[in-house]
Amino acid sequence: SKPSFRLWSMQVRIQQVSDVGRAVLAVRKASGVRQDDAAGSAGVSHVFLRELERGKETVQFGRVLQVLQELGIQMVLEIPSEARARFEALKAETVPGRSRRQSSTDTPEAP
């Protein structure tokens, strides 16, 4: 089960992968969850989780998001206000799991 830390929370500025790794490690340890159990619950290998916690720069972002969700860690991006309208427009026209460039109206060119 997911840890419940909603009684307290803190914001952490993320500037490096190692910052995310330290946050993951701290939450996992505070919740008393073993690394292999946390990895299994998040659907990643224990090797992946170990590498994330150690700050490996090349971890897969999608899997990082899985781990964060499983541990109850929210990630919020703060973008400049002048980009908000464009972000909302892009979000509205993008199908989950598919980039704008791969829309259903795209057809391959004939050879």
Structural write-up:
By secondary structure, this protein is mainly α. It is 47% helix and 0% strand. It has helices at residues 17-31, 35-42, 46-53, 61-71, 84-93. Helix 2 packs across helix 3 and helix 2 (35-42) crosses helix 4. The model is unreliable at 102-111 (pLDDT under 50).
Structure summary:
With 111 residues, this protein is mainly alpha-helical. 47% of the residues lie in helices and 0% in strands. Helix 2 crosses helix 3 (46-53) and helix 2 crosses helix 4.
Main sheet, how many strands, which sense, barrel?
none
The structure class reads mainly alpha
Rg measurement, Å: 18 Å
Helix proportion range = 40-55%
Basic shape = globular
- CA distance, first residue to last residue: 52 Å
Low-confidence stretches: 102-111
| Mean pLDDT figure | 85
Number of helical regions: 5
Strand residues, percent: under 5%
- SSE order: HHHHH
Furnish the topology, listing elements before pairings.
Blueprint: H1 17-31, H2 35-42, H3 46-53, H4 61-71, H5 84-93
Helix pairs in contact: 2-3, 2-4
Describe the structure using short key phrases:
mainly alpha, disordered C terminus, single chain, 111 residues, 0% strand
